[in-house]
Write the structure tokens for this entry.
Amino acid sequence: MPKFYDIFNGDADGLCALQQLRLEEPRAAELVTGVKRDIHLLERVDAQAGDELTVLDIALSANAKALARSLAAGASCRYFDHHAPGDIPQHPNLKTYIDTSSDMCTSLIVDRYLSGRQRLWAVVGAFGDNLVDAAVRAAHPCNLDHTELARLHELGECLNYNAYGESLDDLHYPPAELAHTMAPYRDPRHFVHDEPVFDVLRSAYLEDLARAEDVAPYVEYPGCAVYVLPDAAWSRRVSGAFGNRLARDHPNRAHAIFLQRGSDYVVSVRAPVAMPTGAAALCSQFETGGGREGAAGVNRLAGSDLERFIAALRAAYP
């Protein structure tokens, strides 16, 4: 029997992209996901002839070999993403829906694919990816009042916050569990109202964010600022949300969040909201680095490269 696989990033964008698809195209599938930085997800899939893969919000460039192996085995794949893909293979069993525009996320790509039929979940995903203007534009035809829109914004932030961590042990909910919890809800407003998950995540998010906001900048310059967070579960959870908050509060400045991991760092970069470009190019200068125009990162940066990275950040955002 052919198998179905849903392979998705565990953040808000991946979850909301999947939610839209499965509301429109319900089917039982094996969920393959993990923490936000766990992006080599196709390597976990031993696809066979006739199997169908749906991939959401993970870079094709990081999964090219595993994708080629699945296609060679006779599987088919639909690939939805907004990260730089590298060389896209040409294969009759592969359909790609990739848009790397700085105001695009995977949830909005799926929304376009579905002609807006599950728009509210696309709005949540865009808010979670810190694409506030794009989310508001997408929400305009939905006639939401200010309170409803603000609550969808909060939900996106909370779902995104939950994906950050070194391992699933750092998270409040495994992303696959969240996907199952979200699945029955056609309207995210009902999820917010009826599921205790939202209140748990919101309280934890605000607590962790308050800790991060007590951390002074490591360095500040006119065009960019750097923060260094300690090696702790709370800082691993909140590093992405903290970067998004800084980006919104200082829209003309780039930000780099260095998260200590032993003697090394995990780095998250947010380009200025007013000019959301250059983050992927900056991080790609370093081994294990990559991402998209507005937000990117380095999975492991040697401690000795801290100052070199800051110099490259200053050069990119003078």
Observations:
- Residues 4-202 form a domain with the inorganic pyrophosphatase (n-terminal core) fold (CATH 3.90.1640).
- The chain has two domains: 4-202, 215-316.
